[in-house]
Amino acid sequence: MPTPIAACKLHNRAVLSITGPDSRDFLQGILTNTIIAAGPDRALYAALLTPQGKMLFDFFITAHEEALLFDCESSRKTNLIRRLMMYRLRAKAEITDRSDDFSLWAIPRTEHNDPVFGDLAKAGAAKAFEGGVVYCDPRDQEMGWRAILPQKATIFTDQGMEPYESLRLSRGMTDGSRDFVPEKTLALEANLDVFNGVDFSKGCYVGQELTARTKHRGKVRKRLVPIEVDGTAPQSGTAIEQDGKTVGEIRSSHKNAAIALLRMEALEGPALMADGKAVTVRHPSWLDGL
């Protein structure tokens, strides 16, 4: 029997399955990434936007057998299904909740795990695994791997959410609507461009016009960025101030680490404060590259 692999079970995620001869064409016309690129060896990160280019849902997409599997927020899966069905029209595509059949996992990079998944070193690289699929996080290879496995699979031993949350916040990876505000946060404010979540060379999709215009103008005034708080991070929605002016707000957090929606000019300005506590912006490589 194989040695169990340390991983973090993602209890806040759900699995949707989309099948049928028109499934890829239907999704290609509405989602931000090139869905036809998803295959047995490649996973994608993508989003569904409003016509005004604001975030509705984000998810990971993998191919498994005859289906495309969506790794999405569990608390919002019903709304996502409803929205996809609205756009489906007469397309021959079936949308099914498969959360009772599959479990979702995050697998951190460790001395033990790296040799097991070393062939999936590049962001988005995927392969069949234990009756499901495993893939390198398409947003950032330093996040390690994600897996969608049958509920009966026993290859992983659950380490709880803390290792994943700590890594996610240190790398500045967003966690759905815990970080972006649906129908308010723009796609590039949610970093879809730097997280490989949008293909600017593809044809039309919902929200494409404003997203492309924002990218080409090079003006993204606010972004979701990782921060560290001097003490336990305040609750979501707490204002971040600089010289007495509000320049952002706290979003998701764990202990003293958090994601904040922050004005970009505030990154290099005077000290930041939230609820009387000092705030420091972390600088993962993707943020320094902007």
Describe this structure in words.
It comes from Iodidimonas gelatinilytica. This is Glycine cleavage system protein T. InterPro entries: CAF17_C (IPR057460), TrmE/GcvT-like (IPR027266), YgfZ/GCV_T_CS (IPR017703), YgfZ/GcvT (IPR045179). It holds the Pfam family Beta-barrel_CAF17_C. By secondary structure, this protein is an alpha+beta fold. It has two domains: 5-171, 2-Layer Sandwich (Gyrase A, domain 2); 221-290, Beta Barrel (Elongation Factor Tu (Ef-tu), domain 3). 16% of the residues lie in helices and 34% in strands. The protein is built from six helices and 17 strands. The protein has helices spanning 23-28, 77-88, 113-116, 162-171, 208-217, 285-288; strands spanning 5-9, 13-19, 44-49, 55-64, 67-73, 94-97, 102-107, 126-129, 132-136, 145-150, 156-158, 222-229, 239-242, 245-254, 257-263, 272-274, 277-281. The strands form three sheets. A six-stranded mixed sheet has the order 8-9-10-7-1-11, covered by helices on one side. It has a six-stranded antiparallel β-barrel with strand order 12-15-14-13-16-17. The radius of gyration is 19 Å and the shape is globular. The model has no long low-confidence stretch (mean pLDDT 95).
